[in-house]
Design goal:
The complex is a heterodimer of chains A (216) and B (705). Chain A is mainly α and 216 residues long. Chain A has one domain (10-206): Transmembrane di-heme cytochromes, Chain C (Fumarate Reductase Cytochrome B subunit, Up-down Bundle). Helices cover 64% and strands 2% of the residues of chain A. Chain A contains eight helices and two strands. Chain A has helices spanning 15-39, 49-77, 87-90, 93-107, 123-148, 154-159, 163-187, 196-203; strands at 10-11, 205-206. A two-stranded antiparallel sheet of chain A has the order 1-2. The longest helix of chain A is centred in the first third of the chain and has 29 residues, at 49-77. Chain A is elongated and about 55 Å long. The two termini of chain A are 23 Å apart. In chain B, 43% of the residues are buried. Helix content of chain B is 25%, strand content 13%. The termini of chain B are far apart. In chain B, strands 7, 8, 11, 12, 13, 16 and 18 form a seven-stranded mixed β-sheet that branches. Chain B has a three-stranded antiparallel β-sheet with strand order 17-20-19, with no helix packed on it. Chain B is α+β, with helices and mostly antiparallel strands. In chain B, helix 21 crosses helix 23. Among the domains of chain B are: 52-266, no CATH class; 444-658, no CATH class; 670-705. The chains are: A mainly alpha (216), B alpha+beta (705).
């Protein structure tokens, strides 16, 4: 495995990509927090129900518009291919990648894949994002929009079983999204150092995936 | 100025003048409003109603015959009183909807119909017994005596439920003929009722259309069994008639030379709200300070907290909590000059645009039907099947449900609720009263327990919304937050609407079951003036030889078994306790708009108004839990349960009425699953991270990197 630590830092994320990422992160956290306040108002005192709903709607639109812009950007630049996993990303790369997180990372083995600005997504990352972007995000967006349109297009909501179905799906998706967020944040610590990936997403510059020291 | 331009300029200046002269500006007429009616006249102007010749049932002037006034004959000179009596659910009281016992929508095996005449009510308790009943309670005559106070006359008070003929027109049939028999107060055995002596109780037009009807005198005449004199008694106080002992005497000076009585003396006119309150609730006052009185004669206030008054709450005679801040009228509609008949009008009254003709489909191609009944036709045959709402308790004449204009037929709700997100969803899912009656400030009935009688031989009754005895002026009236229950609307949709929930416990016996008569219950419970020794032995836990309020409760199986044994000793088969839950919709008592709740959390909250448990009773007599009556028009779902502390609660359905209420919905299974996924992820991450730290430290200690 190539050691990239000695090399000069490379630009992994452009300013737009970083802004996009942090805006999505912010709106995602806001959605989870306000969604929690809406679903469990008794246990979430800091925000009253009406404010939670208002913030939730704003954050949802920010996330949706931002996602739409990103889709356009990735389609226009052709970067969309980075997000499409190949069969090899599942097998054998995915298996190797999983083995690394299950065993190799504890044995001090080098990362099995090199991360470059062109191949910034590792196999498991690709698979996860593929599911998030193609299943969970559309599910949340669709159910959220249906709920948002309950006033203007109630019949549309009715076609999908009404709020008792749509809201339950939205809530189920929210739990999965929250779990993904926890996993995502943790996975940022599995870079060369525990803060390396975080630093790359903040500054745009990084060294790839190989570790120079173990996390403390 | 150039001389060549001068003519053109002159033409330009003059040109508009002819037009202006031809069409002078017309000032817009001032908008007409109530303000333009000016102050009320000092004297009440005489109405348009002509003077009335009071006739008896034979058509003779009463001044000459000295017999009871027959309003069917007197009013029938100009109005089609037979039509009015027939098209009148207040008069029919369910007579026209009777069926075989056991088939009523209420689900009670002993009910024969949906109205006051035929539908048993645990609040009044008395049972209109059918022909052939082995232990009959009320015959028709006694029904008039006991329940006629809230019946306007006519219908079942005149005609047989069995054959439609006038009451008393045929001889008694069998040992119990409900049309012909009553229970003798001494022997408690059926005896024939003398219809010839009592006469029948005609539809009493004066009760609603006279200015000052003497309802107390009417009720007294009914209770005395002098049914034919009930209408005459209503005239007491007008100077037309006086009562001396048992005799009614007409006052000749009140009659004109032609034998007529001035309409102004009777105050004849359209039905007033004051007339409605005689049966629907004394707290329905227009001018007096509101005083609460817990009584079944104050029916609507007792059952649903209805106080239809323009008076300010803080000016009431009630000991209201935080009274000084209660600056709203009891009902804002009453304050804005609306009366009962403005909403509950005759369907063919040409002054009103009928929302929907009863039984007719709306004309889809018309947004407004300009056709009107001619005034003379209306006055001849005013349809007294008044338009009505759609409530849990309005069980009679359900064919007319929803004919009344509701809130949104008058109010442009969507124009004034800008603060409310998802307006249409809220309007579709919530009755307006859900937010606009956030709290009812009258004490209301909560439970009626007929399983035991107090020393006064009355049931044990509890109220909600008051701290202390309900009729004690010193008791603090706190009011209550109505339960939001999924009401099935006229269109079949489900709408969360405020209700008061009244639970009742009572004994039934036999199969099919029938309620135990009050006299049987008294015989079982009492011996002479005091309680029967067996009852005393079972209930007198402190051994003082008397039963205090805390002891008057069947809260153990042993106590219930003792009472059951006592009832069996009276010859009742298989006596057992039944309980039922009757919701009362709250549609009146709407305070000022500023009082409407805007707190989303009142509903969007687990334990809030939609999904929170509703207290039904502090305990369940005999351990029996109530069942919802079958004709309450509530969406199925929900559960009545007994908490560990013995209280009886109503727990709403997971999706009350199919409504998903954010923040209020308990999705325990989903949230548990979600928590497992999130918890599993977090635990996995923590374990993974912890192991990484551990391995890294070991490696460092071993000298590695």
């Amino acid at each position: 495995m190539a050691q990239t630590n000695a090399t000069a830092p490379q630009l992994f994320y452009t300013l737009y990509e970083r802004l996009w990422h942090w805006l999505q992160a912010l709106s995602g956290v806001a959605l989870i927090a306000t969604g929690f306040a809406i679903s469990f108002p008794a246990t979430f005192a800091p925000l009253d129900f009406a404010s939670a709903v208002a913030v939730h709607h704003v954050a949802a639109w920010v996330l949706l518009i931002n996602a739409g812009l990103a889709l356009f950007y990735n389609l226009a630049t052709g970067f969309i291919r980075r997000y499409v996993p190949s069969v090899r990303d599942v097998f054998p790369h995915g298996m190797h990648h999983a083995r690394f997180y299950l065993l190799g990372i504890f044995r001090g083995e080098p990362h099995p894949f090199e991360r470059t600005p062109e191949r910034r997504l590792l196999p498991l990352q690709k698979l996860t994002y593929f599911l998030i972007l193609n299943v969970l995000l559309p599910l949340m967006a669709a159910t959220g929009l249906l709920k948002l349109g309950a006033d203007s297009y109630p019949e549309l909501l009715g076609w999908f079983g009404g709020l008792p179905v749509v809201a339950v799906l939205h809530r189920a998706g929210a739990w999965l999204f929250t779990a993904f967020l926890v996993l995502h944040v943790y996975m940022t610590t599995t870079g060369a150092t525990w803060w390396a990936n975080l630093g790359t997403m903040l500054t745009g510059y990084g060294h790839g995936e190989c570790r120079e020291e173990e996390p403390r | 100025m150039s001389p060549r331009l001068a003519p053109w300029l002159a033409l330009w200046l003059v040109w508009p003048l002819p037009a202006a002269r031809a069409e002078p500006p017309v000032a817009a007429p001032p908008p007409v409003s109530l303000r333009h009616l000016g102050p009320a006249p000092r004297e009440v102007r005489p109405g348009l109603h002509p003077d009335v010749l009071l006739l008896d049932a034979a058509g003779e002037p009463v001044l000459r015959s000295a017999r009871p006034v027959s309003l069917m004959r007197s009013c029938g000179a100009c109005h089609d009183t037979a039509f009015i009596a027939e098209h009148n659910y207040h008069s029919q009281a369910g007579l026209d909807e009777l069926g075989p016992p056991g088939q009523a929508a209420s689900g009670r095996p002993w009910d024969a119909g949906p109205g006051l005449f035929g539908r048993w009510d645990p609040l009044t308790y008395r049972w209109l017994s059918p022909a052939g009943a082995t232990r009959p309670d009320l015959g028709t005559a006694e029904w008039i005596q006991v329940l006629g106070a809230r019946h306007v006359g006519g219908g079942p008070a005149e005609r047989s439920r069995l054959d439609g003929r006038p009451l008393g027109a045929r001889p008694p049939a069998g040992s119990w003929d409900p049309d012909a028999h009553v229970l003798d107060p001494l022997s408690q055995e059926p005896r024939a009722w003398d219809w010839q002596a009592s006469g029948t109780a005609e539809l009493d037009c004066l009760l609603c259309h006279a200015a000052r009807p003497d309802n107390a005198a009417r009720i007294q005449a009914l209770r005395e069994g002098r049914f034919a004199w009930a209408s005459t008694a209503t005239l007491l106080g007008t100077g037309v008639v006086t009562r001396e002992g048992a005799e009614f005497r007409y006052a000749p000076e009140a009659f004109g030379p032609d034998g007529r009585v001035q309409a102004a003396r009777l105050g004849l006119g359209r039905a007033r709200s004051e007339g409605c309150r005689q049966c629907h609730g004394r707290a329905c006052r227009c001018t007096d300070p509101v005083l609460f009185e817990s009584s079944l004669e104050n029916w609507s206030a007792e059952t649903s907290g209805t106080i239809f008054s323009p008076s300010r709450m803080r000016l009431s005679g009630m000991n209201l909590a935080d009274k000084e801040r209660l600056d709203s009228p009891w009902d804002v509609h009453a304050e804005r000059l609306l009366g009962c008949s403005d909403c509950h009008h005759a369907p063919n009254n040409p002054a009103f645009d009928l929302k929907r003709a009863p039984g007719e489909a709306p004309l889809a191609h018309l947004s407004f039907d300009a056709r009107r009944t001619a005034i003379q036709d209306y006055l001849l045959r005013p349809d007294h099947n008044l338009v009505k709402g759609h409530t849990a308790q309005g069980t009679a004449a359900r064919r007319l449900d929803g004919t009344m204009r509701d809130c949104r037929d008058c109010h442009a709700a969507e124009a004034v609720h800008d603060f409310l997100p998802f307006k249409r969803v809220h309007f579709a899912r919530l009755a307006c009263e859900a937010c606009h009656v956030p709290r009812s400030l009258a004490p209301v009935r909560m439970t009626t327990d007929w399983t035991l009688l107090g020393p006064d031989r009355r049931p044990r009754v509890t109220h909600r919304g008051v701290e202390g005895p309900v009729n004690d002026p010193a008791s603090l009236v706190t009011g209550f937050v109505p339960a939001l229950l999924p009401h099935v609307t006229r269109t079949g949709a489900h709408q969360l609407a405020p209700h008061n929930l009244v639970s009742s416990w009572f004994w039934v016996h036999g199969e099919p079951p029938a309620p135990v008569r009050p006299l049987d219950l008294e015989r079982a419970l009492f011996a002479g003036e005091g309680y029967h020794p067996a009852v005393l032995a079972a209930l007198d836990t402190d051994g003082d030889g008397a039963l205090g309020p805390a002891e008057l409760r069947l809260d153990t199986p042993a106590k219930a078994a003792t009472l059951a044994a006592r009832l069996e000793a009276q010859g009742l088969r298989a006596p057992r306790i039944q309980a039922e839950l009757q919701p009362y919709a709250i549609g009146h008592g709407v305070p000022a708009a500023s009082w409407a709740t805007r707190a989303c959390e009142s509903c969007h909250h687990e334990g809030g108004r939609v999904t929170g448990d509703q207290l039904l009773a502090e305990f369940a007599p005999g351990g029996v839990l109530p069942r919802l009556v079958g004709d309450a028009r509530l969406a199925p779902g929900g559960e009545i349960l007994q908490a560990a502390d013995g209280r009886v609660l109503l727990r709403s359905a997971a999706l009350p009425g199919g409504a998903y209420v954010h923040g209020a919905q308990s999705l325990a299974w989903l949230d548990l699953l979600g928590l497992l996924v999130l918890g599993g992820t977090t635990a996995g991450v923590a374990l993974h991270g912890g192991l990484r730290v551990l391995v890294a430290r070991r490696r460092r200690r071993a000298g590695g990197r």
